Amino acid sequence: RFVLVRERTTDETLSVPALSREAQRFYLEGPLTSPAVKDAIRKVQERYTALQAFETEHAEVAGQLRIIVEDQARLRANIDRVPKESEVYKRYLIKFDTQETQIEKLQAQFKEKEKVMKQKQSEYGNYLEGVNVD
After folding, report:
1. How far apart are CA 62 and CA 92, in angstroms?
2. 104 to 31, 55, 69, 97, 119: CA distances (angstroms)
């Protein structure tokens, strides 16, 4: 009796970001996936998760900014309607001034986060292009 074992070497190209979570888990938990490939998949997942978290922060700042700007439209309309000598008018002006300061801070945060987000997106894209596991 003679036992013959055949092995076949294949190359496979994976686009980790395009893989579903289930497919990623399949490769991470699979016994045939090399440690280097598993490590690369984990690193891509980590970078992607960090990028998503930063994009969420960016969107939150944009949302806060939008809410204040919308409220300022309401304040402007109210300021035009109430007598300038009234307490309500003074209160509206104080709130309007406070919101202007908030807007300036949020705009600065938004611009900074947008700059960093674009940098992180570029770094993530460059990392993906450079990943090559043999």
Report:
1. 24
2. 54, 20, 11, 11, 23
- The CA angle 61-67-114, to the nearest 5 degrees, is 25
Q: Name the pTM for this structure.
A: 0.71
Q: Do the Cβ atoms of 17 and 128 come closer than 8 Å?
A: yes
Among the residues of 1-134, which ranges form H helices? Answer: 21-29, 35-81, 87-130
Task: State the Cα torsion 31-34-39-44 to the nearest 10°.
Answer: -90
Burial of 84-119, coded b for 16+ CB within 10 Å and e otherwise, reads eeeeeeeebeeeeeebeeebeebeebbeebeeebee
Task: Give tens-digit pLDDT for 62-94.
Answer: 999 999 999 999 999 999 999 999 999 999 999
